[in-house]
Amino acid sequence: MPYLELNDLNIYYELKGLGAPLVLVPGLSGTCDTFSLVSNAFAKDFTVVSLDNRGSGRSFSQTKHFTIQNMAEDLASLVNLLEFDKINLLGHSMGGFIVQEYVNKYPDKVDKIILSNTSRKCSYRNKDIFQCLIKLIKNADYLECWHRMFSQWIYTDEFINNNPRSYESAISYSLHYPYAQCADYFEAQALACANYKTTVKDKNQIPSLILYGDKDKLITPEESLELLNYFPNSKKALMKRSGHIPMIENKEEYSEIIIDFLNP
To answer: Domain limits of the chain?
Structure first.
């Protein structure tokens, strides 16, 4: 298994495909597997790099206190290890926070970015949700409740109500996931999100796609669209009947929109 080995952590990553680099950065508690249903479509045109952020999946960190900026530096170290001159970046949710910080510090390394279901800062509502989730995940008796409560925010009501068998399968998959996040790492990532506010300066001219779902409950369309003020050279793409994880619920449309943006 490939790892980026640094002094205090190891970052797990995967590579597939050929072409210009496309780096996939998952959100809170997510891993490489977040993009498993769309990465093969991307790999037809790109060298796809997916990673487990520090504190998730197969990545290990000695410290359990870190920031979005720390994770952006992890991303920078991985890009340097792979010796890419220019990259495309897709950041989902918390991954969108990480991409914003990477772009702000290393704009010359970036060709295009996709900010998927993300925003410029963590809302007070989400800070409140994260505090509840932190308390749940610390109690082993409530672990299934943690998965179900989190899922209520990321899946659409239509998916849950109209596809109960698929929804229960998703819950079972999460409960038995072999690289499940421990409580301390979830708390560390959740607090990093809660303390985040973009440092991107106005007039960042990197070509950007702001991709958002009309039924996203965790990061609302209004919150996503605020990013247009920070990335004026951007396009927006509304996914109808889509919640917070379109790469799972709307995988074909999601991959098509992103490929069309990267290959106009």
So the answer is: 3-262
Single-letter amino acid code for the residue at 89: L
Q: pLDDT by residue (tens digit) across 108-139?
A: 999 999 999 999 999 999 999 999 999 999 99
Structure tokens at 1: 């298994």
pLDDT at 218 (0 to 100):
98
CA distance linking residue 224 with residue 215, whole number of Å:
12
**Is residue 97 within 8 Å of residue 198, measured between CB atoms?**
yes
Please name the residues in contact with 197: beta carbons below 8 A apart, sequence gap of 6 or more: 120, 121, 122
**What is the DSSP track for 131-196?**
HHHHHHHTSGGGHHHHHHHHHHHHS-HHHHHH-HHHHHHHHHHHHT-TTPPPHHHHHHHHHHHHT-
The CATH number assigned to the domain with range 3-262 reads 3.40.50.1820
Whether 202 shows a pLDDT value over 80: the answer reads no
CA distance linking residue 96 with residue 73, whole number of Å:
14
Q: Which two tokens stand for residue 250?
A: 């709307």
User: Cα(29)–Cα(82) distance, rounded to whole angstroms?
Assistant: 24
Residue 65 CA to residue 162 CA, distance in Å, equals 40
The answer to whether the beta carbons of residues 206 and 107 sit under 8 Å apart is yes
8 A C-beta contact, residue 244 and residue 219: yes
Whole-angstrom distance, CA of residue 55 vs CA of residue 87: 24
Can you tell me the mean pLDDT for 235-256? 97
Q: Is the pTM of this model over 0.85?
A: yes
Give mean pLDDT, residues 251-264: 96
